[in-house]
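Key result, reporting period 2: structure in, sequence out.
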């Protein structure tokens, strides 16, 4: 009887080549549902990697992710050499955007917050931006004129050159709009000037000069008197405290104008209403509304430009231009 030799073959998890090609179905493992999903994922990943690898390197570098404009601008500023022209341009653009945004959204309730945020900007460097933004915002929203005047008074107490610049531009705007017969913008300008008088940012002498000019213009008597009445309503309470004698003289002029045949009935009615407001001590038009008295009286500063309108002959030059326009026929 022949002996058989027992050969022990070690187990291997990887089938041999003969086993892998065996026709025996018992050893063929059918893929399950999870295996099929895994195969699909691997095939997609493979296809994606192939498609990415097929993209040129130059195209990959040009792909940019979306970034909010404000964050992108901040990143550009921080990553640029501060001594370069590009950095200065970006910094100026950022300063302009910040000042415009704060001036556009200021109101009585958020005024303290806006002031704190505004102080974070380089307001001395951007004083021209601030002057332009605050004047434009007041023209668009004259209802908030008292708020804008309070904001100006705060910065005028810290940076007098800023208040001086705003006053110069407002007086220039008043002169331009008045001679251009732009009554709407002229009314917005004198309203702003009146509230700056209330905040002690503009000297009352300038206000009296403007009123004298308006009440003496007999060639556009209805429009000029109406502008003067609106101006006097806004700052009448302040003038009654600091210049009562001059205010009484202005009301005497208005009383005489009631007998002027050139005045239409609407203007006469406005004068009569103004007398009623005066008798009530301008309670309907307080000089500084509640919550807007933000600057201590000792810290208030009246810029020199407010007095230069008179000391440099501002009213005289104004009247000379007025007379020249009359002779040239441009006033009609």
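The corresponding designed sequence is given below.
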């Amino acid at each position: 009887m022949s002996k058989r030799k027992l050969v022990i073959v070690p187990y291997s998890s990887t089938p041999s080549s003969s086993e892998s090609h065996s026709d025996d179905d018992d050893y063929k493992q059918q893929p399950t549902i999870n295996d099929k999903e895994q195969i699909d994922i691997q095939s997609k990943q493979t296809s994606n990697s192939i498609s990415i690898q097929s993209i040129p390197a130059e195209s990959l570098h040009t792909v940019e992710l979306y970034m909010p404009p404000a964050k992108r601008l901040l990143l550009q500023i921080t990553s640029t050499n501060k001594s370069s022209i590009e950095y200065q341009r970006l910094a100026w653009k950022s300063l302009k955007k910040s000042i415009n945004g704060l001036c556009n959204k200021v109101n009585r309730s958020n005024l303290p917050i806006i002031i704190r945020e505004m102080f974070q900007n380089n307001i001395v460097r951007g004083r021209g931006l601030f002057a332009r933004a605050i004047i434009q915002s007041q023209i668009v929203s004259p209802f908030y004129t008292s708020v804008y005047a309070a904001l100006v008074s705060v910065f005028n107490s810290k940076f007098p050159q800023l208040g001086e610049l705003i006053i110069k531009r407002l007086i220039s705007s008043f002169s331009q709009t008045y001679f251009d017969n732009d009554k709407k913008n002229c009314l917005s300008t004198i309203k702003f000037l009146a509230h700056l008088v209330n905040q002690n940012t503009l000297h009352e002498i300038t206000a009296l000069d403007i009123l004298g000019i308006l009440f003496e213009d007999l060639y556009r008597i209805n429009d000029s008197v109406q502008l003067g009445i609106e101006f006097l309503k806004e700052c009448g309470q302040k003038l009654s405290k600091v210049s009562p004698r001059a205010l009484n003289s202005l009301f005497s002029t208005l009383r005489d104008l009631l007998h002027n045949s050139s005045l239409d009935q609407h203007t006469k009615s406005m004068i009569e209403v103004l007398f009623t407001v005066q008798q009530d001590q301008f309670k309907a038009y307080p000089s500084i509304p509640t919550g807007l008295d933000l600057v201590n009286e000792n810290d208030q500063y009246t810029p020199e430009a407010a007095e230069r309108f008179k000391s440099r002959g501002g009213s005289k030059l104004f009247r000379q231009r007025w007379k020249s326009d009359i002779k040239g026929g441009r006033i009609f």
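The mean pLDDT is 78. Residues 33-54 form the longest helix (22 residues). This case is discussed further under Risks and Mitigation.
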